[in-house]
Design a protein that fits this description.
The chain is of the alpha/beta class and 400 residues long. The protein folds into two domains: 174 residues, Rossmann fold (3-Layer(aba) Sandwich), CATH 3.40.50; 211 residues, Rossmann fold, CATH 3.40.50.10300. Helices cover 34% and strands 24% of the residues. The strands form six sheets. It has an eight-stranded mixed beta sheet, sandwiched between helices. A six-stranded parallel beta sheet has the order 3-2-1-4-5-6, sandwiched between helices. A hairpin with a 5-residue loop joins β7 and β8. The longest helix has 17 residues. The structure holds cytidine-5'-triphosphate. The site of cytidine-5'-triphosphate has 16 residues, from α12, β17 and α13.
Length: 400
């Protein structure tokens, strides 16, 4: 339920704008209050009259409308809300928010707010996949904006692919989760590992991998949003601290294991880190030098501890639910299924990280959830959405 929660709904100009009317109706039906800003382009698709009819309020359209400013200034409007929801978020609106533009009522309210922002993108598949939109999306995620969708399917423009607006009932669920209306994990403790590890060869060189940490950070934030007391143990990444999460930053696999064990006991452990399997046996405090003879230094490797397997076999300290990841390039399901058994964890989130997929380091993910004897296939979606869905699945497993 959204009892008394105040949503500022910003309606962009796209064919999916008509669904924002249903969204406004559903928010009110769940006890929430809606105020709406309709962009100039949005008015080409739905009228202020129909929006106002559903929000039971004045509809804000023009930044320079003196009557509206006197009534409720744009800054007040954005501060008075508990959450700003941009639906549909067009490519143009996403670009404006990502770049901090403020040239109309919607973009000014978004820039002036100190409240969380959620965007629900909908656009033509090529616009969605364009490098510029994906750049803007990455910036918005980095700025802490929640992204719901888009989903894949046939679109009004006749094309097929990602770009469809998520259905209004699912958007309301995302709003409820975001606003903590459903603190399904309150009182639970979660540990998440994320990012790569760096294994030194000498003081200036190290062994690493291409993991960005984005998926693990998003999972930590999603668990925290559901009320879990979340501790993120992260290898070196370029990401800022996720909101509402305790973070310990480490370099090596051994440091990651120590920090993870120190965070026990926990109810949930999600190992999303791409831990280096091996470290250099020869790590030295002096930089390795060429001796001019063309000889290369020997690089012998030793195996690192397995954090996921260690947590899975932690006896009385074992978290109730231990989830691992399997980044594979071939026979994804078979390898992940075998990995689940080998590591002793409860679930494996498997994904195909072959070079063509763009998953490693990218913003989207296509995952398969391997549980005891079953594989569930999820549609391609932004990593933030995989995180939200996974956190909800975890909550369901712990409460059922
Ligand atoms: N993992 C871990 N510690 C390690 C290696 C892996 O905690 N030293 C975890 C990862 O965080 C992930 C899972 O184990 O949740 C699987 O990682 P992956 O690299 O796919 O598995 P590996 O055991 O390294 O198997 P592979 O031979 O396929 O690399």
């Amino acid at each position: 339920m959204l009892d008394g929660k105040r949503i500022l709904l910003i309606i962009g100009g796209g064919i999916a704008a008509y669904k924002s009317l249903e969204l406004a109706r559903l928010i009110r039906r769940r006890g929430g209050e809606v105020r709406a800003i309709l962009t100039k382009a949005g008015q080409e698709f739905v009228t202020p009259l129909s929006v106002g009819g559903l929000t039971h309020d004045k509809v804000y359209t023009d930044l320079f409308d003196l009557t509206a400013e006197a009534d409720m200034g744009h800054i007040q409007l954005s501060r008075d809300a508990d959450l700003l929801v941009v639906c549909p978020a067009t490519a143009d609106l996403m670009a404006k928010i990502a770049h901090g533009r403020a040239d109309d009522m919607a973009s000014t309210a978004l820039l002036a707010t100190d409240k969380p922002v959620m965007i629900v993108p909908a656009m033509n598949v090529r616009m969605w996949e364009h490098a510029a939109t994906q750049r803007n999306l990455a910036q918005l995620i980095a700025d802490g904006v929640s992204v719901v969708g888009p989903t894949e399917g046939s679109m009004a423009c006749g094309e097929f692919g990602p770009g469809r607006l998520v259905e209004p009932d699912e958007i309301v669920e995302a709003i409820e989760a975001k606003l903590g209306g459903t603190q399904l994990l309150a009182g639970r403790k979660a540990i998440v590992t994320a990012g790569p590890t760096h294994e030194p060869i000498d003081p200036v060189r190290y062994i690493a991998n291409r993991s960005s940490g984005k998926q693990g950070y998003a999972i930590a934030e999603a668990l925290a949003l559901l009320g879990a007391d979340t501790h993120l143990v992260s290898g070196p990444t370029a990401l800022g601290d996720p909101r509402g999460v305790k973070i310990t930053r480490v370099e090596t696999a051994r440091e990651m294991l120590a920090a993870t064990e120190a965070a026990l006991p926990a109810d949930i452990a999600i190992c999303a880190a791409a831990v280096a399997d091996w470290r250099a046996d020869t790590s030295t405090n002096s930089k390795l030098k060429k001796d001019g003879s063309g000889a290369v230094p020997p690089l012998s490797l030793v195996e690192n501890p397995d954090i996921l397997a260690t947590l899975s076999a932690a006896g009385p300290k074992r978290p109730q639910l231990v989830v691992g990841f399997a980044a594979e390039t071939d026979d994804v399901i078979d390898h992940a299924t075998a990995k689940r058994v080998r590591k002793g964890c409860d679930w494996i989130v498997a994904n195909d990280v072959s070079p063509g997929t763009g998953i490693m380091g990218g913003d989207n993910n296509t995952v398969h959830i391997i549980t005891d004897g079953a594989a569930e296939h999820w549609d391609p979606m932004p990593k933030a959405q995989v995180a939200t869905k996974l956190a909800e699945r975890v909550a369901l497993a712990l409460t059922s």
